[in-house]
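Co-fold these.
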Amino acid sequence: MTARILSATIVRVLQQLRHDHRTVGMIIAVPVVLMTLLYFMFDGEQPQVSGLILIMLGIFPFIIMFLVTSIAMLRERTTGTLERLMTTPTGKLDLLFGYGISFGSAAAVQASVAAACGYWLFGMQTAGAAYLVVVVAVLTAVLGVGIGLLGSAFARTEFQAVQLLPIVVIPQILLCGLFVPREEMGTWLQVLSDLMPLTYAVDALQQVGLHSEPTGQLWRDLAVIAGCAVLAMSLAAATLRRRTD
Amino acid sequence: MDIAIEVAGLTVRRGARTVLQDFDCTLERGRITGLLGPSGAGKTTLIRAVVGVQKVAAGTVSVLGLPAGSAPLRNRIGYVTQAPSVYADLTVAENVRYFAALVGADHGAADRAIEEVGLADAREQVVTTLSGGQRSRASLACALVGDPEVLVLDEPTVGLDPVLREELWDAFRRRAEGGVTVLVSSHVMDEANRCDRLLLIREGQVIAADTPVGVKADAGTDDLDLAFLTLIRRSEEAVR
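Predicted complex below.
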């Protein structure tokens, strides 16, 4: 990895985003619109709404960044730019971290806007600091980027890439404790849930919601999320090949 | 003779099909070598092997004395894929500056490359708004930037009008005179005549490797199109 190439890649991905106003608009607006929906579904009743919106602040960036990244990387493959990059000094990590950092910063904007709306418009309350909510959300988004990069290695077409969502993301949403508290699940479901990184994102947000000071469990959760993001990116790097058939 | 690219015993299989079989060729430094042959002959596969992105079953490919695709080569080689591979959602300038940065060249170099392919007026245009010919020139500019010692171009002039084609070939010639080795595949016989050497391949085999004059003399005709036809027929008869 070289600083020059990494920064050029970050700039390039951000420029691509900048030209795509609609995508930027959706990245920012969609979580807020969905949170509004949630708010009215529960008639603004607290503390249910507050708890749900807090969890959503982890789930939205994860889904959106997973989708955006897996499609972006697939486009690199199908349009031939990836093959071209592989003939330049670009390292695999330059490319992957380039995506991770630029989409991660887009996620930071998204998470900040969503969290601000959560607190000010939808009456969300957390015992812990707001910045911790944003930190968890951004890290979860980076996890989404990492898993998206890895996932795109298993898709040859856009149709396949889009279908990774129900395979990779929905089970994590089902088992993260949003629908049924984890303690009430059967043992095997709990084991599955323990293996899914999104579970730790939701737990981290709930920790911030319940405790005024960062807890040990929060740090553990953050470490797990960051570890999974790095693991996903390393595996993605291993699936990138300079030489192909 | 100064050899820039040497391919020896190269065999490439894609699935069950053998695209290149025990393929040999050498390319001199500072020369333009035209790679010709019908669709499916293995042109793109050979090109991909030279730039080091093709999995090979056997044989060696060396470029500037180094194994093809090895790290020290990656800022000395410019590669244009058959389909224009630039970022459709970036402007021409943003694309070329990105590829400039990858090889350690500056914005000035990017501007010169854009100028060279005749896209100065379209530099701030997003690639999706460009015509097909402009797109392939944008792709070419990304390969020219940073003045690579080896240019590998897979049909870089498809869809361009004759004037532009002329200009680009002048640019290739200037670079070759400056010592750059150019490997260019083409379907256009008029372009073949402008090469220093020709490599005619068919079904993964070299049918002719000579100067355009030599190829024509060998086939006993003045028309390159006809010469290729003759050589292809001759090779078919030899197989029988």
